[in-house]
Amino acid sequence: PVPSGSRSSKTFKPKKNIPEGSHQYELLKHAEATLGSGNLRQAVMLPEGEDLNEWIAVNTVDFFNQINMLYGTITEFCTESSCPVMSAGPRYEYHWADGTNIKKPIKCSAPKYIDYLMTWVQDQLDDETLFPSKIGVPFPKNFMSVAKTILKRLFRVYAHIYHQHFDSVIRLQEEAHLNTSFKHFIFFVQEFNLIDRRELAPLQELIEKLGSKDR
């Protein structure tokens, strides 16, 4: 049951399923197989002969689904009263704007912000002109900048979870899951230079720690 006033339940279904038998599904399977090898630096590299846009699209969908699940485990601890602002530690606060419905950034609670954010990402992923699922349909010219904005925003959910809810994550014994997911995400955005360093600042120490184990 969804407590009233909390996030709409629709956000928690991994909405964007990659159709089985499609090329993108094969790519996702490839990604999962290489992840299993334990070498994340290698797992994020563009497979030989593959289209970069398609590789980024498949992984973006996958990260969206992972973050949805991870945030879903702590949503009861992320409330209007526990998190009245969307922050990642005392130095970083995020205000929401999507450029269409909300043009001027608004200050809102973390659960509200994350609901806006995940709904916004969902709408992008469901837009066939941005994320074509059919073979042979080309990606739009602005695909890279769309993907970068999505990933930049998804990073903020990780940052909020690490800064404000890590104790809950530990109590739920989810930290290995969270760390692996985040490490995969970071290696991916580093490989293709998808998020500006300044945006990564709230988790800089963690990022350096994750990276140093893998050199």
From TrEMBL:
Gene3D superfamilies: MOB kinase activator (1.20.140.30). This is MOB1A kinase. PANTHER family: MPS ONE BINDER KINASE ACTIVATOR-LIKE MOB (PTHR22599). Transmembrane segments: none annotated. Keywords: Kinase, Metal-binding, Transferase, Zinc. One of its GO terms (molecular function) is kinase activity. Zn(2+) binds at C78, C83, H160, H165.
